[in-house]
Amino acid sequence: MALALAEATPVESIALDVEGVSHRYELDGKSLQVLDNVSLTIAPGEFVALLGPSGCGKSTLLRLAAGLETATTGKVLEDGRPITAPNPDRILVFQDATLFPWRTVRANIATGLEARGLLGEKGFRIDEVLKLVKLEGFADFYPHQLSGGMAQRAALARALVNDPKLLLLDEPFGKLDSLTRLRMQNELLDLWKSAGFTALLVTHDVEEALLLADRVIVLSDRPASIVAEIRVDQPHPRRRDDASLVALRRSLLEKLGISHDV
Amino acid sequence: MSAAVEDTFGGAGRRTLALPFGGVWRNGLFAAGTWSLTAALSYGLPDVISWGATELFAIIMLVGAGIFLALSVTVHRLGGFGRTLIHYGPWFIVLGLWLGVWEVLTAKLGWLPKPFFSPPQGLLHVYITDWDRLLICIAYTGRLWGLGFFSGILVGFAAGVALGWSKRFAYWGMPLLKLIGPVPASAWIPCTFFIFPSVFHASIFLVALASGIPVAILTAAGVSQVNRSFYDVARTLGADNRFLIFKVAIPASLPNVFVGIFMGLYYSFAVLVVAEMLGAKFGLGWYLQFNTAYSAYANVYAALIIMALICAGLVRLLFVARDRLLGWQKGIL
Ligand SMILES: Nc1ncnc2c1ncn2[C@@H]1O[C@H](COP(=O)(O)OP(=O)(O)OP(=O)(O)O)[C@@H](O)[C@H]1O
Ligand SMILES: [Mg+2]
């Protein structure tokens, strides 16, 4: 399915290092600590999933990695260099699709290329990613004419068209129905294998994390710190009823504070 | 849905539309009735107060009645235009009645006396006797309004974007704008006289100010209210400031800008009279004042109607432009 993309884009990937990062938001003089001494290293081309309770600071961590925010203390590095500003090499797919309502789906996807003056050179990729997220027929629709899931797929396409070296995904499949979700997970996996970018996926779905990631990191409640790290060595394609995955799932749920019978 | 449409748009018209060819447009017949009634009243009853153009008014009403009579059987063959006519059917009926009542109360009974009130035939008289001067006035006002309005909204838009975008600009500009905003245009007359080389320039400035200020205020509000996440998304996609301003902030605030332009349009018309008070030789505002001074209220009403029609036409044009530019909003609002 991801063939067109696979052939067109041999992408390099980058390493992401988070070193002793703590982050706090200042709100009307009060400060809210969100991250507490988080350290993690993601190798180039690795697929890491972040799990954690709602409001613990997962999105915040992604914003730091995207360069939209600077950590209060600690360092966030790409290939050893500090991340100081956003850069289209590291693209964040936001939790809400946040499509520009005044742009059609096609124009939304074109945003990154347009902003960097690459529309002429790479414009053909727009049709490829449209096909990839199954929105070929909706290129000229405006965001308010899309369903929630379609909007999220369009947002994913808007990131992918830029051939990011690091793809930061904030619950990208949250609004999809379970079938589309499965399909998109497979698409993402194919894409990741063929394009070779580094992926950091925030999700609240333990199974999704286990099916996709090389490594699953579990965060504590706010302020988030890393409470567990699990390596998933199973080769792809993985089966969700695979015995070792089921065991991992149980232990992950326990780490998240949810015991048995779930 | 269709029932609701029928209720609001006048059920009778819609239902006859549904009839096969040859169906009669009943509201057209009624309109022909009220219009010919008014024609008869104007022609038949003697004028208590002389206004002139009595016969011409009766003839025009009669011709109108004839047209409605013809339309009542042919309107269904006129396509879109016909549907518009049918939509306004009830208005045509009432218009005929209203002109009749107005005519009787003023010219025929004299209850509403000269010079304060004028019957429709009085206005007609103004149009046929003073049309050349009115045309010149329209041209003069058009030039003044066009120059003032367009320079006003351009400057207002640019200022609004700057105010909404830049904190430093807003720090100095917003208080000034808030102080200047409520000042009535006539208060500017003394200093504009001093600052501008000619009366014409001063008048343009007043019109520009009236139309520019609401545009500036609303644009600034729009730009500063743009959802921050749009900027975040654009920045992660590699957008620079230029892109953020022109491709994110401005399109996102365009709905607000249009509200400002609509307000500016109304204010600019309201200020025309003041602007032409400065010593213009011609112009609708000048015409209004000149004739008010001579208690020629029929001329005043005649010019007011022209202004109202021009303003309505411009509003209509602006709506078309907005729908073009803001097509993406359909279904959101
Ligand atoms: N811009 C901000 N200013 C102040 N506080 C913020 C800001 N953004 C997030 N927070 C706070 O930081 C905490 C963590 O937010 P974050 O969005 O990172 O959570 P999350 O783990 O992504 O949650 P969820 O799974 O529900 O999306 C929350 O308590 C939130 O209120
Ligand atoms: Mg989140």
Describe the secondary-structure layout.
The complex is a heterodimer of chains A (262) and B (333).
Chain A: H1 3-8, E1 16-27, E2 30-42, E3 47-51, H2 58-66, E4 73-78, E5 81-82, E6 90-93, H3 105-115, H4 119-122, H5 124-132, H6 148-160, E7 166-170, H7 178-195, E8 198-202, H8 206-212, E9 215-219, E10 226-231, H9 243-255
Parallel strand pairs in A: 3-8, 3-9, 6-7, 7-8
Antiparallel strand pairs in A: 1-2, 1-4, 4-5, 9-10
Helix pairs in contact in A: 3-6, 5-6, 8-9
Chain B: H1 2-9, H2 11-18, H3 26-44, H4 54-74, H5 79-87, H6 89-108, H7 120-165, H8 167-180, H9 189-195, H10 199-224, H11 228-236, H12 241-275, H13 284-293, H14 297-325
Helix pairs in contact in B: 1-2, 3-4, 3-6, 7-8, 7-10, 7-12, 7-13, 7-14, 9-10, 10-12, 11-12, 12-13, 12-14, 13-14
The complex binds adenosine-5'-triphosphate and magnesium ion (MG).
List the main descriptive attributes of the protein structure presented here.
heterodimer, A: alpha/beta, Rossmann fold, 2 domains, 6-stranded mixed beta sheet, 4-stranded antiparallel beta sheet, 24% strand, disordered N terminus, B: mainly alpha, MetI-like fold, 14 helices, 0% strand, binds adenosine-5'-triphosphate, binds magnesium ion
In short:
With 262 residues, chain A is of the alpha/beta class. Chain A has nine helices and ten strands.
